[in-house]
Amino acid sequence: MFAEKVIELLKEAERNPVTIDPFNDDKIRQILEEMHSLFRMNMNDANATMENKTLWTTVQVRHSALERNKRCLLAYLYSRMSKIKTLRWEFGAILPPDVRELLSDDEYQWFSKYSMNLASYMRSLGQDIGYNGIDLTENLKPPKSLFIEVLCMADYGKLELEDGDVILLKKNSRHFLPTSECQTLIRQGILKQIT
Amino acid sequence: MFIEDIKNDFYNVLQGNRVLLLVHYDVDAICTCKILQSLFKCDNVSYTLVPVGGIAELKQAYEENNEEVKYVVLVNCGGTIDLVDILQPEEDVVFFVLDAHKPTDVCNVYSDGQVRLVYKDSEENIPNFDDIFKDDDEDEENEESESGREGLEAMVERRRERRAWEERRNTLMFNYTQFSYYGKPSACIALELAWRVSRCGWGCVWAASVACAAQAALHTRTPAAALLDAHHLHTHTPAEHSRTGARVTLEKDVCLPLYRRWSLEAALCHSPAIAPALRLHTLAGHARLRQLLADTGIPLQQARQAFRSMDVELRRSLLPALEAAAPRHKLPPPTHTTFLLQRLHSPTLAAMDVVYAIMGLIEHETLPKAEGFQHALAALDTESGENESRRLGCLSAQRALEAVAKLVHATLSARLLHLAGPFSYFIVQEGTPEARVVKGPLWLGVAARWCGAATQGARAVVASASIDDANCLLLGIPPRYQHEPRNLFGAAFEQAATKCGASVSLDHVDSSIITLPLAQRAQFLDALTALLA
């Protein structure tokens, strides 16, 4: 049957709607071969039967199979592309090697171009009001509150906030601080978020 | 200076600024802190919270954290000391004081804006400004300008006047400072603030309820005053239901500590309100307890198992049965009206239990004070289900109450409650397992009140426990503390210390608690006896 392989390919991709699969090089080559052979057969028949109109139906069926293959391949590539786009927002500009392996060379090229575009866009943001860029990937969901309550777990010393205030982080003192300031310290285990 | 409008002059001033929050280690302060924290969280007021245990710690905490901070809020500390003199702050730092300890230092009252007292207690008789402060320079200038006989007479007249004024001032100040006592709980004031800014949720009401229960459990206020303080808790019930379905109700409850987690017999044995009247330190005490249980119709087997596994019928009938049986045994009324936190799908929580849990946390046997403070804040949460901090606190409180009971029984049966002049005193024996638990002012206070109640409560009690190898803690409980909680020991300790020359440290916020070197304790107690006799 025509276009059977491409449906298999799509079904495979469909099974994993969230994560990205390895680029199915092998199957795509087979589909392309199928398309080439269809095209060749159509060419032969079309040339041979300029007058004989009985073969026209066959040609038309082959042609729609060809077009279907093309549409499905494009859909496959497009769905992968949007997944790669989310990769950029999730992982940042540098992909971990295991994710990198899943992409084909062309896809990777597209990824780096997209990444560069995004970076230059983010850098250009807010220049008119004196900021040099905003990292859009930092808060993908709006934070529940700008401030969080944290408990200091160790004697850390002084911490200077972005607005110039200096606070002393001493064990067992509690602070109510801007979320962005605390993230790294929470990761280091110096602060503990209190919910 | 006192603040006129708690919303505009206190809360709105803080908004948009960094605030340093210094909180004393006591139940009321922790409840207040909980309310203030929830307000600050709503309005994104960034704060730093540091718990402080005494005046020296207050000073240290201020010095460490005063960079770039213009507003300092002191909860239950700092009102009774001259803040400007002790902390030496910059000109533009403003202190807001929310302190239930009274009397308030007059320098704080008449400060021109640097120290602002959030609540004016009508019970305080603060001397007038003109009666206690006078400009010295003015007089001297006048003295020099006049001369001759008339001038001399006028000068003598002025000096006489001045002496009279000074005498009057000293009497006024003596009357004002001779008793130390507690005012309206800070948490009630904080609740009023939350109400004014329309952020009064059930969490805030619960925190204030716990503070009210604390003053009843620790006898810091007269019963009448406590009733009036709780008034706002009825009126300020939030309209909306909380997410967790928690709500605070005022109900009649048995005044046994932690009985929902304990067995009935154990709760009766360790209740500071009822156990002293049962005189369990005597041989007849336990017979009396069994008689009481028999009168209430509860079999011993049921009374000894965990309360929550008791027969439902018996549990239901406990309140009326105990009420009926108590007068026959000459017990104080065994029920009181208290606040309960009703939660969906979770056991009801009594405010008094949380008071003991918090006390157990801030004076835990092994946990450092500061960590206990963090647990205590978590124990005040109203969310349904079991709370790890609260469980820890209840366990510790049970242990501490057991230790207090054991200590008091040992003291009374071994006749170690010594009579000295107008007061009795006892010393916690070092090396006993109880001494490790009863070492902080809160539990030692419970023990001292227990002793007082067991001996009919007509005499003042002084209790002492050693903190470490060299120092010990000494605290005094006034006579008839249930009815008149004003404490005369603050001033008495100070005078006795100057008389006998002991190097007493008056570091505690409550002046009726002092620390002094172990070696000087006997000498100090002699001086105190001589002073009060």
Strand content of chain A: 5-15%
- Report the total helices of chain A: 6
Q: By helix and strand content of chain B, what is the structural category?
A: alpha/beta
Total DSSP helices of chain B: 24
Helix content of chain B: 40-55%
Mean of all residue-level pLDDT scores of chain B: 87
User: Tell me, what is the CATH class of the largest domain in chain A?
Assistant: Mainly Alpha
Strand content of chain B: 5-15%
CATH topology of the largest domain in chain A: Methane Monooxygenase Hydroxylase, Chain G, domain 1
Strand sequence of the main sheet of chain B, in spatial order? 2-1-3-4-6
Mind summarizing the main beta sheet of chain A?
A: 3 strands, antiparallel
> What's the gyration radius of chain A in Å?
28 Å
Most extensive protein-chain contact, per-chain counts: A-B, 21 and 23 residues
Question: How would the global form of chain A be characterised?
Answer: elongated
Quickly count the domains of chain A. Answer: 2
| Secondary-structure element string of chain A | HHHHHEEEEHE
> What general form of chain B does the structure show?
globular
Number of strands of chain A: 5
Low-confidence stretches of chain A: none
Please report the distance between the alpha carbons of the first and last residues of chain A: 60 Å
**Annotation, overall tally of beta strands of chain B:** 15
